Amino acid sequence: MTVIYESRYPTHPDDVKKYDTEQLRQHFLVENLMQADKLVLCYTHYERVIVGSAVPVQAAIKLATVEALKAEYFLQRRELGVINVGGSGTVSVDGKDYVLHNKEALYIGMGAMDVSFQSSDSATPAKFYLNSAPAHHSYPTKHLTMDKCTVLQMGSQATSNERAIHQLMINDVVETCQLQMGLTVLKPGSVWNTMPAHQHDRRMEAYFYFDLAEEQGVCHFMGQPQQTRHIWVANEQAVVSPAWSIHSGCGTSNYAFIWGMAGENLDYHDMDKFPASAMR
């Protein structure tokens, strides 16, 4: 098994105003996810959230710790959210198996020592997307499915943003320390997500785009409302969004994305909205 690890340091919004395309991508785009038989981990210094993936094909993948964590095992001081965007697979947590089908999630609390990932069929491997944040308390592991989560029907066909927001991992569904995750699916003909755009100065967020057809892309908007920037994102890539940044996107076709948050509070609706007329 191979572990691919990198660390991303915070950036000041005044500095980002001067970034060119390559610098924006270097600091905020995570484009090496979903590699076969590899554990990929990107440690961000935004709330110390880790964005990662595990795609077991030939063998199981163990959630290994890395030297930078200075921990005996990965979840010694952390909690973990897992969402499967591939074929069916199993997440084993200290000897107990949880089968995750496509778009199902698993919350794993602090203290779980032995976590591994396995695909049901190597021909259609599971693709586990991972978000992890520091934790202060151990909450129970919980399997979360699309039919049992809170679903918000948002937007309209008229504004090209008709979408279903599946709140898989928020505080009225599962107890967590600070991690929240969910999955948004855009309806055919809709391309805009999170419009009006918003920011929350009390939390960071990461977007992982998937189910995007070949040769299609998403233009992810970021930056301060009066100093917006954009990054073109391909299928199965993620964007790290600092607390000072808006986050929104527009695709060349419909798609789905996973949002993950961590920070000051667990209030999903704690956000400052900025309509298109307010942005520059």
TrEMBL record:
CDD domains: cupin_KduI_C (cd20491), cupin_KduI_N (cd20294). It holds the Pfam family KduI. Belongs to the KduI family. This is 4-deoxy-L-threo-5-hexosulose-uronate ketol-isomerase. SUPFAM superfamilies: RmlC-like cupins. Keywords: Isomerase, Metal-binding, Zinc. Binds 1 zinc ion per subunit. PANTHER family: 4-DEOXY-L-THREO-5-HEXOSULOSE-URONATE KETOL-ISOMERASE. Catalyzes the isomerization of 5-dehydro-4-deoxy-D-glucuronate to 3-deoxy-D-glycero-2,5-hexodiulosonate. NCBIfam families: PRK00924.1. It catalyses: 5-dehydro-4-deoxy-D-glucuronate = 3-deoxy-D-glycero-2,5-hexodiulosonate. InterPro entries: KduI, KduI/IolB_isomerase, KduI_N, RmlC-like_jellyroll, RmlC_Cupin_sf. Its EC number is 5.3.1.17.
